[in-house]
Amino acid sequence: MPKLDRSAYYDLTRDMNWKLRYVSEEEAFPEEQSKSYGVPAEAWWEWDEPYKVTYREYVYNQSDKDASTYSVKSAIARSKLFDQVDPGWKSAITAHYGAIAYGEYLASIAEARMARFGRAASWRNMATFGTLDETRHGQLQLYFPYGLLRKHPQFDWGHKAFHTNEWGAIAARSLFDDMFTANDAVGTAIQLTFTFETGFTNLQFLGMAADAMHVGDVEFGSLISSIQTDESRHAQQGEPTLRILLSQGKKEEAQRLIDVMFWRSWKLFALLTGFSMDYYTPLEHRSMSFKEFMEEWIIKQFIDQFRDFGLEKPWYWDIFLDELNWLHHADHLGVWFWRHTVWWNPDAGVSPEEREWLEAKYPGWNDNFGRYWDVITENIRQGRIEKTLPQTLPMVCNMCHIPVCTPSEPKQRHIAPYVSEYNGRRYQFCSEPCKWVFEINPERYAGHLNIVDRFLAGHIQPPTVEGAYAYMGLTPDVWGEDAENYAWAFKKAEGGKATAV
Amino acid sequence: MAQVPQRRRAKAWSLWEGRRIPSEYEVISHKLHYHFRRDPAPFELDPNTPLNQWYKKYREGSPFQVDDWEQFRDPDSVTYRDYIQLQKEREVYLDNLIDEFERQDHYAKLSKPWVDLLEQLYIPSRFSGHILQMVALYMAQMAPASYITNAAYFQGSDEMRRVQRSAYLAKVLSLDHGEHLADSQRTRAIWEDDSHWQPLRELLEKLLIAYDWGESFAALNLVVKPVYDALFIRQIAELARSNGDTLLALMHDDFGLDSQRSQRWTTALVKYAVERQPEHRTLLKDWVEKWTPLAYRAVEGLAPLFAKAPQPMQSGKVVEAVCDTHKAFLVEVGLE
């Protein structure tokens, strides 16, 4: 082994900051690629990463990881483990691969942006490792569903989703592009690595890994855990960036970056993780409810982080806490109803036992949502499946691109939709914060058409639900069907109790 | 409900157009840049948002275009998994090499004049190497196909590898030959103020702002990097050998492997593009002609330092050797 420890020479691996002479600062670090917020160049040079790593350590450590992840995969491929896994769980991972595989690879572009336009050499180095990490994550999460193509053509959407205008893909792109693919390096450090990665994904992946092991999906569990071990390294880019902004008196700017992206992340997270945890994961393997998970991990942790930095809770915190009670239930009902518009098989998750669990975890669930499911259940029992499928498109938010849901409790103060006018055009939003994100920066979003705008503008032909399915790239062999082929609707409650109708 | 035709169970991605089964490399690299040439804009925001405009101007708007980039293949077909495995082996090799030389107290045996020269000629190269890293990652994020992007990601990572080994050497030399060798301010002062370095610095700073994707590729991979590597790998290795610094020579032989890998995919990309659009030969040659004079001036700036070594190499010979190496590469690539 070379005689020097990393700590002896590490400073020399990251001191390559210099004053430009032959080109200007603005030419080499244009504001659109790297917002300086008026912070002088040499102040950025103080950027200091908590976790230090050198290239040689990186390749050593990663080599071991990949060896074990791929060998689990080979072992599983030879077994029939996947065939035995619960259909709801299969749906959860099908949704995951489609939304996340490309998301990870896109993040490699964002990391590369920081590797070029980050305003300190140390930052640029960490981002170079981040670029490699996200390349790894993209490639792993393509390779795994590819291996499952024989099991179900829906796994093709692990590769195809982002090429389409399926509404979930639009929502994912809208979030990811705002957060990182089309964001400057400084914004990316705060919004991707700090807000999204340390705030949300870190914990979601931990949760999913644990659930996967419970469910018996060893392959997915080990994939996700392995990905997670990389996360803390590149997610650390947010903190030093934030520290510099705060030390230079840019607290308002930092607060705004975080507030915008916490809300936007929440919307997609509620959709994907909400239905995964509370409806698709088999009942016996649910360790906590989505709301409990959010309260325990994200709310508690995030509040601590805010406090540590002297930041405030976002202004919409009460709205967020309220949405924790109902948003994902409404999203799930909508996704199930519009199941032909997604590439996985939504698991209704409303068998009698599951409804008991939902009522216990979310008192009032039966009054608010159960009564809709009652109607659906009855239609299924009477063989009227066509009544459980849509005739129209829902109203869709111009910010998060998720259908606008209103709580069915009329005493709620929310009204839907929230509306904004800008340059003669009307925009519709699901919530006050989504509207606020638009209004503080309309030029970033104004020229974009959501899927309903496109429908109304004649982009979707024929202008019918069938036309919409085709526009979204969905065909009967891949679009979503009920995960259990409606078997749940025929289950009786324990003890022969009649289910509510 | 409409009759759904029976389909054979899918064996490859639906977006894979080939008749044969894709390789693992292709499965995880194919068509990932769905945003390239997307209407109305690459990214799912207002079409005129700054980064949508940036990509439309510098990527979709570059003169370096072909109909379909997705058939390009890195001849080494490197995936992340491959890259890590490959470089881990190389890093183990370098560790063992360094270990062996350290056991023989290599650094203490180097002469003062040689070490003084290293301070002037070699130690500041972590600044220039870092810029090569930055530009490779820029070129990567602007490339129109993931097959190209990935190869460029690995190239940028290779630059970081080289820089970090030079940082190690700077420190370890300082233990025997003086703290100044590991003094960041001093090293930076050479990079910023020493006249030998200014032409290279000018070249690299200008390279940083070559934002057109095609020009970035051509300037970096057809001119700057091959010229830089010819000087800082081949010529340095020869100088080190003549001066009894076998460790430095062997390390640079190893970096040469990374450099050759970059040249292989670069050659393949040029051939790919020119086959499809013969006029790209002219486009690429024009860019080469634009950047070469500044690159050769950079070499002329540093070459006199080679003559200051205890076992000197004539400045003119160094320049000639680098230019010859570069020209040979251009011939191989079909641009000379």
Description:
The complex is a heterodimer of chains A (501) and B (336). Helix content of chain A is 59%, strand content 2%. Chain A is mostly helical and 501 residues long. Chain A has one domain: Ribonucleotide Reductase, subunit A. Chain A has a two-stranded antiparallel sheet with strand order 1-2. In chain A, β1 and β2 form a beta hairpin. Chain A is globular and about 75 Å long. With 336 residues, chain B is mainly alpha-helical. Chain B has one domain (80-333): Ribonucleotide Reductase, subunit A (Orthogonal Bundle). Helices cover 69% and strands 0% of the residues of chain B. Chain B has 13 helices and no strands. In chain B, α3 (80-103) packs antiparallel against α11, α10 (213-242) runs parallel beside α12 and α12 (280-306) packs antiparallel against α13 (315-333). Chain B is globular and about 60 Å long. The N and C termini of chain B lie far apart (63 Å).
Q: Any chance you could write out the topology, listing elements then pairs?
A:
The complex is a heterodimer of chains A (501) and B (336).
Chain A lengths: L5 H4 L15 H4 L12 H4 L10 H24 L2 H4 L2 H31 L3 H27 L9 H4 L6 H15 L3 H31 L2 H18 L2 H10 L3 H30 L9 H20 L7 H21 L14 H10 L3 H17 L36 E5 L2 E5 L2 H8 L11 H6 L8 H7 L30
Antiparallel strand pairs in A: 1-2
Chain B lengths: L23 H4 L22 H11 L19 H24 L2 H4 L2 H10 L3 H18 L3 H32 L6 H10 L4 H11 L4 H30 L3 H31 L3 H27 L8 H19 L3
Protein name (chain A): propane 2-monooxygenase
Keywords (chain A): Monooxygenase, Oxidoreductase
Enzyme class (chain A): oxidoreductase
CATH topology of chain A: Ribonucleotide Reductase, subunit A
Largest sheet of chain B: none
Shape of chain A: globular
Q: What fraction, in percent, of the residue positions of chain B are helical?
A: 55-70%
CATH topology of chain B: Ribonucleotide Reductase, subunit A
The total beta strand count of chain B reads: 0
Low-confidence stretches of chain A: 495-501
Measured by residues with Cβ under 8 Å of the partner chain's Cβ, the largest interface is: A-B, 78 and 83 residues
Second CATH tier, the architecture of chain A: Orthogonal Bundle
CATH evolutionary superfamily of chain B: Ribonucleotide Reductase, subunit A
Number of domains of chain A: 1
What is the CATH C-level name of chain A?
A: Mainly Alpha
Q: Tell me how many strands of chain A there are.
A: 2
Give the full name of the CATH homologous superfamily of chain A.
Ribonucleotide Reductase, subunit A
What is the CATH class of chain B? Mainly Alpha
Amino- and carboxy-terminal Cα gap of chain A: 72 Å
**Classification by helices and strands of chain B:** mainly alpha
Keywords (chain B): Monooxygenase, Oxidoreductase
Enzyme class (chain B): oxidoreductase
Pfam families (chain B): Phenol_Hydrox
EC number (chain B): 1.14.13.227
